[in-house]
Structure formats: structure tokens, C-alpha cells
User: Fold these one by one.
Assistant:
Number 1:
Amino acid sequence: MISRLTSRFLVYDCLKIVSCCISLQTATVCDDIDLTEKLILEKRNSLDLSKSPGPDLLHPRVLYEVRHAIVYPLKLIFERSLEDQQMPRDWKSSTITTIFKKGSRSNVGNYRPISLTCVICKLLESLIRDHIMEYLLKNELLINCQYGFIKGRSTLSVAIMLDKWTHDLESGGQIDAIYTDFEKHLIKCPTKDCLTRYDLMVFPGN
């Protein structure tokens, strides 16, 4: 039974990759990102001002207050970074700190480490992320069952399936549920599979 179940998941995963390849054949080339001052300002205004600064000690509140004065220098820095395909050294470093989760504060196991990176680097990352997501969604390169990290399709949307389950149960059907623990799921994700799909989606240029 376990063998049959595993083979179903493997076949389904292969079908997802094949479907992605077919979509890529008809997709247009991803254009270079156009970093305008207006776009940078809009993204800067959306950042959380309560976040902590990174190794450069530039607090989000400070960057917000001087946003109009630094938007053009930021534009030049971002464009140079994309053109040279390199990042400033400070952007590659981070400050490691801990946040309390629950339980006794005297137990080190109740703390979770977090990495504080430069806010300016996060700003550029967010701009690039939006550009890539727009390309992926426009060309339908994401499977329909993808819910996480997509605007308007949070994991809460999956709850709609409850209606179908209720209908099946009322019709005399059977529903089997498997609960899994997603602790450290990002660490345990299939890296080889992720790299394969990344190789399929090559983004030329900047």
C-alpha cells in the first residue's frame, strides 16, 4: 500500500515537471526588470517600519523618513548590482539573534534563531520577487495547487475543500486524512527537485 501511494506521488511530481516544460515552450522571455523611482518608493512605503535593522544599522524608520532623498541613489545602486550581477559585501552578511517562542524562558530550546539582513537588500529582493512572480503567473508556469506565497491564494483558501469533503461524506463516501509535521520543512525539502525546476526556468538578462 505504501509503495503504491509513494509511486502515485512520484508520478504526479513528474507530471508537474512535464507540464512546466510544456508551459515554458510557449512562454515569452522574461523581460529585464525596470527599476523606476516610483516603483522603489512604492515598495519602500510598504515595508514594515517596526522591523530591526541589519548589519549596516540602517533602521527602516530612518530609510522611510529620508526616502525621497535616497530614492535616486538607491536606483543607481540597484541597477549597478543587477548589471554587474554582484551584491555589496554588507548585503551578504547578517546579524543572528533569537526570538522567544513559548514555554520557559530559561530553556534555550524555546528560542528560535533569526537572521537580520540589510533592509535595502530586502527592498531589492522584494522588487525582483514581484517581477519574477508576475512573469510566472502571466505565463501560467505555476501549478494550480500552489497556494503558498501567491497573492490572494493563501493556505486559508485550501479550506474551501471542506465543502467537497462534506458533500462526499454525505453521499456515503470516505475521506482519509494524513497529518504531517512541517517542522523544518524548508530544510528537508527535495533540493534536487527544486534545482531541476530552477534550471527549467532560466531568466536571461537582468
Number 2:
Amino acid sequence: MVPRKPEEQSTDSVGKRTVPAVCVFLALAVLLVFSRTLRHGFINFDDSVYVYTNAEVTNGLTWHGIGWAFTHSHAGFWHPLTSISHMLDCQLYGLHAGGHHLTSVLLHAATAILLFLVLRRMTGALWPSAFVAVVFAIHPLRVESVAWVAERKDVLSGLFFVLTLAAYVGYARHPFSWARYLSVVVLFALGLMAKPVLVTLPLVLLLLDYWPLGRWGTGPFFGVGTGPFFGAGTGPFFGEKTSLANRRLTENMDLSPSAARGGQSHFRGENAGWRRQSPPRRENWDSPL
């Protein structure tokens, strides 16, 4: 066995100390920026249909509720994992909004830490990976997703996005294994069940094959198992579920002239129980705050 050079040993020791420190810093940064949301309540825009007026959700985590999540649309979308996460929050916190916000903050912190670890594993670059993860953790564009309970689908799908990347790196850098390959597919499917927008993830995997994984045109099942297989195998199913949910939402909307004149959109059927409020009258806009 060739002895390792002193500088290589020093680099490894620095990495062993720095990586945990960066992870702790990311967690503290997320908590510092978003902890104030723990004192916030629900808002009357979509939080109602996602949580506090939806009986299937407020009943907590039940077998009936889990079955409902997989067989019905929720707020016009089919995202059963997101629905189940809201049910679990109601099981743990009831309708105390601070608990629901806490879950979103913890999910975002976990995603930021995992993003750093995955980027470092892919590129071997410690500080550039840390920089990207910090920007992701505290960027203003993340505020809506973390601070709005109805956007749980975004932080949850983001977590599964990064977990899929991690599983794919393990698959790509080892001899072919069905277990590793299926782990990528399963995590990808779970991400789709959190938010269907993850249908774009296979394109990201193809880009990663070019850089930094260096698998472009090589490796087992390249061009079949990397991206298009995912799109061909799961895209039509999830796309159809989402399309069906959107059609049902449109069918349940009251688009009559009277509703349009009143500035309201009424919902009937399975999406009943909520309506968008009318805009304030003009005279209220001029009143002092």
C-alpha cells in the first residue's frame, strides 16, 4: 500500500472538520431566517383548502385519509404525499399553525444540507458547493415556499429532488445494480407524488451525466435508463393524474356571468368548502391603514 502524502492527509482532516461545520451553519442560517414564521398563522389564500377547512386533512393521519389522498385531487392537484404530510402535521400539531410552519422550515433545512453534501460528492469542490447551498438556503425566492403552508408541496418535492440526485450519483459511480437503479426510480416517483413539476428531473440527470459525472455516451442503459425511461415509464401516469385533477377543478368552477360580475369564483363538488374572496371595494382602498 502506497503511503499517503502529508498534504493529502491534511486535506482530508480539514474536510472532516469543515463538512460538519458547513452543515451546522446551513441549519442555523435557515433557522435564523425562517424561524419567525413559527409565530405566523394560516392565511386565507389556499391554506384553507389545503389544511384548516379540509376535513380529510384535519382528521389527522388515518387509513381513510391516506386512501383519499391517493384517489382524489387536493386543491386541484394530485399530490398524495403532500396531502399526507399535511395530515401528519394535523396529527402532531392540530391546527396550531406554528407547527405546520416548523415542518416546512425543517424540510427546507434538510434539503439545503443534502444539497451541499450531494454537490460536494459530485464535484469534489467543498467551498463552491457550500456557497451554492447557502444561496439556496436563504435566497428570497425560497420565502414563499417555506413561509406559506400551502406551498408544502414545493419544499417536500425539493427534498425528494435532492434525494434523487444523491441516489443517481451512487448509481452512476458504481457498477450497474438494479437495487441502486430502482432506488432512483422510487425516489423520483415519490417526488412526483409531492409535486408533479418534478417531471423535468430526468433532463437534469442527463445534464449531470455530461458534467460532473462524465458519463456522456457511456455507462449502462445510458439514454434509456437515465432520463427518457423515467419520462416514458412514469410521465404519462402522473401527467394524466394531474390533468384529470385540473379538469375536475375546472368543472367545479362556477364561471357564470353572475359570478364573474361579482368578482368571485365558486367551487362545487369535491373541491367545495372554499371560495376566493371578492376584491375589496374601491372606497376601502383609499381609507388609511
